[in-house]
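Shipment paperwork, digital attachment
Item: protein structure file
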Amino acid sequence: MTKRPDQIKGPVPLWRRLLDHRLGVVMDVTTRDLVAALTFDDGPNPDATPLVLDLLDRYRARATFFMVGKAAREYPDLVRSVVQRGHVIGNHSFNHAPFPSLSLRRLRQEIADTDRTLGGLSSRLIRPPGGFLNATSRLALMGMGRKVILWNATSLDWHEEESDRMLESLNRDMKPGAILLFHDGIFSLKPSRNPPSPSRSSMLTTLGKFLDQWAATYSFVTIPELLKHGRERRVWRSRSPRGQP
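Attachment content:
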């Protein structure tokens, strides 16, 4: 099994440190503060997003929602509600196509169409669909002044149905400065032996259990707030992080 970069022991070569620093994307934040960031992809979803917002309110948690432009166009009231309730919105492309499969012109169009749909409610944060990047798309995003946010902990909720297993996955990588991945909606990236599960009921159960377990000791903040608490841990990624198809 290939190890994740943060699992590799020994000194990191200078060329790798330079690559991470110049081209790396944000995986989490190095801090001693008991803070973490909840993130939600692929919404807004009229069935799940309001319930997610209610759970976040109950635990006084703030989150970042990486929205698909096509879904945001259908549910503009939900987009406004997310911002009105104290959360941050990021760009997750318009059609959820993997960035390495797109021409530069199409990539820019995907981002611009989503920006236009979200109006002035979106931040400069972006999350590539599935976390997929290559050197061309990474350089293009840098040129557009976008901060790419991935994650270090995932609920596996895009295909996992058992809440206890989702919770185990999250707890394994929970730490100060963590960025946690959930989905309040589902867009399929590609045919898979583990097809995406459209139901968000298990995700909602897991989110409630997770917040009940951690909200007494951790503050859950938006990505812009999290970045103020420490140093960004950047890693160069040309493939999907753990937990995506």
